[in-house]
Specification:
Blueprint lengths: L4 E4 L4 E4 L8 E4 L4 E7 L2 E7 L3 E5 L4 H4 L7 H5 L37 E5 L9 E4 L23 E4 L5 E5 L4 H5 L1 H11 L14 H13 L9 E5 L2 E6 L7 E6 L13 H11 L1 E6 L11 H21 L4 E6 L1 H15 L7 E7 L25 H11 L5 H4 L17 E6 L5 H13 L4 E6 L12 H19 L4
Parallel strand pairs: 13-14, 13-15, 15-16, 16-17, 17-18
Antiparallel strand pairs: 1-2, 3-6, 4-5, 7-8, 9-10, 11-12, 12-14
Helix pairs in contact: 7-8
Amino acid sequence: MWFTAARNTGSGSDHVHDQHPASTRSLTRPAVACRVARMAGRAFLAAEGTERVGHVDPVTHAATGEFGGQHLDELRHGLAWERACAVVVRRHAIERPRAAPPSPRDHHVPASRANVTARAHGDHVDECRLGRAHPVDVGVECVAPVAARVTPCPLSTLDAVGQPMGTLKLWSDELDAMRPEARAVVAAQIGLLPDFRNDGRRTLAEQVARDRAACEQGYLPVAEAVEQTIAGVRCRVFRPSKPARAVYLHFHGGGMTAGAPVMMDFQNRGLSRDHDLVVVSVGYRRAPEHPWPAGPDDGVAVAGWLLEHARSEFGTSRLLIGGESAGAYLTAAVALRIRDDLDAIDRVAGLNLINGVFDWGASPSARGLRPDDGPDILDPAATFLMNECFLPGMTDDERRAPHISPGYADLHALPPCFLTTGTCDHCIDDTLLFATRATAAGVEVELFVAPDMPHAFMIFDCAMTRRWIETQAAWLEARLTQPAR
């Protein structure tokens, strides 16, 4: 599927076009943000602002969602539209005559005009650039569709003068070649992971007890971990043998109902050794005994203490935050509150968001509409149970409030983010939603999509997982060597 959004600066006009124009009329509105999404099989079109943005069919635009002459019916062709899709177009509110679309040809994007790099990992890094104009120029920003497929679906983007910039893919050819081995390893070893799937025969309390017992079977404490209470919250702390380069504030997974810091001892010890980090893993309160906002409150309390005391306690004031699954949710939620409540987001060097939950109203993939039906440790019933435990008595819309679900929050001014997901993960849409919205908000985002891989895929030893480990390590090193924000 090819969606083209062009700006013709040669004629001084702004133009969004497609190659199959229909009978249309112009639509006038000022600075437009047009979001096109399909969730749970239903298409939505929302527009706000005021200026000329292209064409909308006078009869069918409300029903078909035609935008800029590009029909959603055509956009759907070849895409798994169970995934959410976002397109953001920003313009100056100056009416100019329309111009014919330029003919595409290869063109290099000046560095000053590119603010987002969509990385396909492996041999092909920076395969695609999403162009954004210089602030003084008329600008168009296109965020690639967040649709994911078993076979990558390309999306072309054009630069400031309408020239092709490249093709966006969710993973590289190198990762694609690793898929047969990855599928075989997952099939052979998926039973080693805790199984959070819910067959519906247990009560809520029985399922929570089962999930907690499954997590506890995998607890392997290491001697280097030290229990320490910080801001009234029990934490597990790892100190490096060399002077600390940063503090890594960590949140474990478990659906907000299960798990503990000890479940990630091996990984956290490795982070501490490999990158000279002090790792502080938070033993936050869990649902259903302590529903929202108890867990995020504990995370903010520890973060606030670290912002004030990390230098005197650990010898460094640089802070990174990261976590897996529900821990990735807490990472994002705590970072947003550091920005909004503590006014200290400039002290955070990066967010490591692994297999995160960012839509507590249940995204399409959480409801079972995944791009890949391979094995996973989650299912829709499990996500429903976690939502009910953590946010009891709320509707899905209430659970999507920005102060609850980070995927719907204002994401401006967040530090660089590394987001990880797999195409079999029931949380894939949460990650794709957060990644595209953060990118549109100007956040530096690196996205690693592992084809055919489930939730918590990093436990499987295969070439694809090793590539992810290398990519995460490189991202962490980049955050540790960059100047303070």
